[in-house]
């Protein structure tokens, strides 16, 4: 069965984000960070944020993960820079619903991350796609929990 042109485009965008992730690395002036892993497959993300007056001014991620996990984190960083923490939390919820096959008609605000809607067809990959988003949600919910602590790790299984 051949891929449709749209499916092929989506695949290329995902592969590009995986091969050349945006905002990959570290921040010199982060004021929040968190590390989270998916023990099922071994994906690990270290997320650093600079949040000023409830606005996400900068974000960077590092770690190791599969192509879906890396691409999703890259797309997430693009989607949330410049957003308020409330707006970012709404995008986290929207992304979570989308990859579970819910609410597929309101994903345009996710930018390239909307192209991961097909993950809903592969339940084993949902945790890969949501790892970065869940880490962001935990960091925003507990802004003091990761500041200045190295090795602060959450398992995605705790969710």
From TrEMBL:
Gene3D superfamilies: 3.90.1010.10. Residues 10-128 form the NIF system FeS cluster assembly NifU N-terminal domain. This is Fe-S cluster assembly sulfur transfer protein SufU. PANTHER family: IRON-SULFUR CLUSTER ASSEMBLY ENZYME NIFU HOMOLOG. InterPro entries: NIF_FeS_clus_asmbl_NifU_N (IPR002871). Transmembrane segments: none annotated. The lineage of its organism: Bacteria, Bacillati, Bacillota, Bacilli, Lactobacillales. Pfam families: NifU_N. It comes from the Bacteria. It comes from Enterococcus camelliae. CDD domains: IscU_like (cd06664).
